[in-house]
Amino acid sequence: MADPITRKVYVLYTGGTFGMKKNTEGRLIPQDLETLKDFIINHTILYVRNPGESDDCVRKRIVTKDGFITLYPQLADDVPETKGKPTILYKMEALEPPIDSSSITPEHWRQMAEKIKDNKHDFDGFVIIHGTDTMAFTSSALSFILWDIKKTVIVTGSQMPIFHPRTDGIDNFVGSMLMAGYFSNRKEMQQVMLCFRNKLYKGNRVAKLDCDSFSVFDSPAVYPLASLETTIKLISANISLREAQPNDSLLVEKMFTKKKEKVRILRFFPGITEEYVSRVLNGADGVILQTYGNGNVPEFEWLETLLLRADKEKVLMLNCTQVFRGTVLPIYQASEILTRANVISGYDITSEAALTKMIWALNLCNNHQTVRQILEHSVCGESCAPPISLMME
Predict the structure, then answer these.
(1) How far is CA 339 from the centre of its chain?
(2) CA-angle at 188, arms to 187 and 189, nearest 5°
(3) What is the pLDDT of residues 324-375, one digit of tens each?
(4) What are the tens digits of pLDDT across the range 95-146?
(5) Which helix (H) or strand (E) holds 67?
(6) How far is CA 62 from CA 44, 46, 350, in A?
(7) Radius of gyration from C-alpha coordinates of the chain
(8) CA 168, 172, 178, 179: dihedral to nearest 10 degrees?
(9) 387: DSSP letter
(10) Model confidence, pTM
């Protein structure tokens, strides 16, 4: 008889509402990993206990001596394959200390990526538990840092703590684990994604649109990759993505470092002043321009002067629309200023992906023209820009 199939998932707890409880003042604060792990194990026991079996006996049965936890076996019934379904084991670790996601920095992204890289040979899939406020930034950032990982990486969290009776956290966690475990062998699932409210999204194509409901995220320009309703449907099979051709490649010399590049956001608004724009552009390495509509800006002479000066000083400027859904297109005269200043079109990239791509690209290499080429193209499906393949020295 063949040995049973086992797949392993690495769970990284970073903090967020998912693992919070109220303190004595009634404020939500992150709990430690052991508190979170104990709750999840106890929840699993509810579904796997045999008649007359004690909690301690169940715990010994579902938690291995080396600390792996057995995922709810009933989830295998939701997997389309009819035979050879694997047993999913997972291990939980944490970034210490767990934090509210509003305190996330690029250094945290580097730490998350290092955790995944250090464990990539021992695990089939990865799940990151994260707060919703900056979740789309993190899933976008990791998609670039881990652009060649060839593993299933899913970021998830919740609007209400898992310790609350009305939590959405259990559904989001279970759905993420199901996809990271049972579907980790599928090529289209080997990328960074975000799972929330029964939808699996491409990690660099998602944005937060609601902080009051359980339907927090949406993907403005592309369909979700999967729907996790009463049946699991992989929508990605119906999407034909444009891929880079063999001659569409770019050689870069190093990976993500700890450099602190000066990346800023310039959001246009009626009444914007010369002094304000000058302060944003002055001394920057990269600037995300959040423009009107299809990429338009005011036709002010002073604005063109400032943008031309920034370009001369090698400030990289990436244009993305400030509306939720849309594409930067040079169809209005109001966008000619940007063309003359060599502002790069972001096409339909989200603001979150634009910012994290700029930070990543500036940390990737020191060559100005190489960074510009990266920003002009789609590296890992983050926009409808012409695709390009990276080759690392």
Answers:
(1) 30
(2) 90
(3) 999 999 888 878 999 999 999 999 999 999 999 999 999 988 899 999 999 9
(4) 999 999 999 999 999 999 999 999 999 999 999 999 999 999 999 999 999 9
(5) none
(6) 9, 12, 41
(7) 23
(8) 150
(9) B
(10) 0.94
How far, in Å, CA of 212 to CA of 164, rounded?
16
252 DSSP β-pair partners:
392
* 114 closest CA partner among 165, 139, 149: 149
Grouping H, G, I as helix, E, B as strand and the rest as coil, residue 392 is: strand
Could you give the CA distance from residue 8 to residue 177 in angstroms, rounded to a whole number?
10
Beta pairing, strands 249-252 & 232-234: unpaired
Going from the C-alpha of 159 to that of each of 28, 35, 135, 197, the distances in angstroms are 12, 19, 12, 10
* CA distance linking residue 91 with residue 130, whole number of Å: 16
DSSP E strand stretches across the chain? 6-15, 20-22, 28-30, 69-70, 87-99, 125-129, 152-156, 192-196, 199-202, 207-208, 217-218, 226-228, 232-234, 249-252, 263-267, 286-291, 316-321, 344-345, 389-392
Residue 240 confidence (pLDDT) above 50: no
The pLDDT of residue 98? 94
Dihedrals phi, psi of 123, to nearest 5 degrees = -130, 150
Q: Within a 10 A sphere around the Cβ of 334, how many other Cβ atoms? A: 17
User: According to the model, what pLDDT value does residue 365 have?
Assistant: 86
Which structure tokens are listed for 339?
């063309």
Q: Of 239, 266, 296, 271, which Cα lies nearest the Cα of 358?
A: 266
CB 124 within 8 A of CB 7: yes
Residue 261 has what pLDDT? 78
Complete DSSP assignment for 168-231? SHHHHHHHHHHHHHHTTTSGGG-SEEEEETTEEEETTS-EE--SSSS--EE-SSS--SEEESSS
d(CA 130, CA 351): 19
Tally the residues of the chain.
393
CB 370 within 8 A of CB 377: no
| 291 neighbors 320 (Cβ within 8 angstroms) | yes
